[in-house]
Amino acid sequence: MKKRHSFVSNSSSSSFVVIPEREVRKVVLRSAEEVAERRETIRKHLADEIALRRRDGLPWTGILSDGEKDFGWQTRVYSDISSKWNWMVLQACYGFSDGGYGKKTDEYRKQVDAYLASLGLDPIDWKELEVVMSDYTMETSIDHQSIDAEGTFLEICRIGIAEWLYNSRCFIENGNDNG
Q1: Based on the structure, what is the number of domains in the chain?
Q2: Helix (H/G/I), strand (E/B), else coil: 141
Q3: For the sheet containing 15-20, what is the strand order?
Q4: Residue at 141 is within a domain
Q5: What domain range includes position 74?
Q6: Bridge partner residues of 16 (DSSP)
Q7: Alpha carbon distance 49, 54 (integer Å)
Q8: What is the pLDDT of residues 24-70, one digit of tens each?
Q9: How far from 96 is each of 51, 84, 108, 156, CA to CA, in Å?
Q10: pTM to 2 decimals?
Q11: How far apart are alpha carbons 133 and 70 in whole angstroms?
Q12: Is residue 179 part of a domain?
């Protein structure tokens, strides 16, 4: 991991996770009501997408239609729930299917599915997501230099998936610092 201007990120130059150190300390200060409200907001957002996919007869691949799905060298910052969720799911998918980007990625898939189960939602059909990504029927990708499933999940686990998704001060930054 690199330190970039007082925050922790993975080491890619094109796309990386940002969790300011001060946000890690703030998590313990959240009230039970605030945590419950954030959790319900996320649960509803994910449940709505799952319901749409079921209505259309499609499997739940974990990719949210209203978020960014292609992370690369564009110069953008993503702090919305859907884009951060998609980033997290794609990291778990790439890391596991590719085999070279992190041996613990199966564990991270299980963490994502356990989080969904804690919200009373269905797990992701990871095999279907791999198929969709491999035949390019869905424009989803993370630039090869940004694939770091283990680093991403280690950072997200410091504050928890719900905090990562809901907190706008935690974000994904896309850009190229090589020139």
Answers
A1: 1
A2: strand
A3: 2-4, 7-9, 15-20, 171-174, 76-78
A4: yes
A5: 2-174
A6: 173
A7: 9
A8: 656 656 778 888 888 999 999 999 999 999 999 999 999 999 998 88
A9: 27, 19, 9, 17
A10: 0.80
A11: 11
A12: no
